[in-house]
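Notes from hallway chat w/ T.B., transcribed later so I don't forget. T.B. wanted the structure written out for a chain they're using in a teaching module, and asked if we could keep both sequence and structure tokens in one place. Agreed to drop them here.
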Amino acid sequence: MEEKRGDCVQFDNFAVGKAIRDLRKEKGISQDVLSGFAGIARTHLTMIENGTKQANFETLWKIALALDIRPSELVARIEEEIENHT
């Protein structure tokens, strides 16, 4: 579990992956399709969704655009996921 400091939310790879996976499933698209739209390897996306690989900001930006959402919306979903599991 990640701990909070004040109002700050600590980064959590598993929360990032779950938020992306949930959004992808809500949109009804496969990892192959999302990774293609985002311009990343499917194996890379799989590792991000599993929380075993940390996505950099550029990759999160590409994934958000591929999901047809603003990057800030993806970050908000990640924050919600972290807050729900701390």
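Follow-up for T.B.: Residues 4 and 10 are 6 Å apart (CA to CA). Might be a good example for the class.
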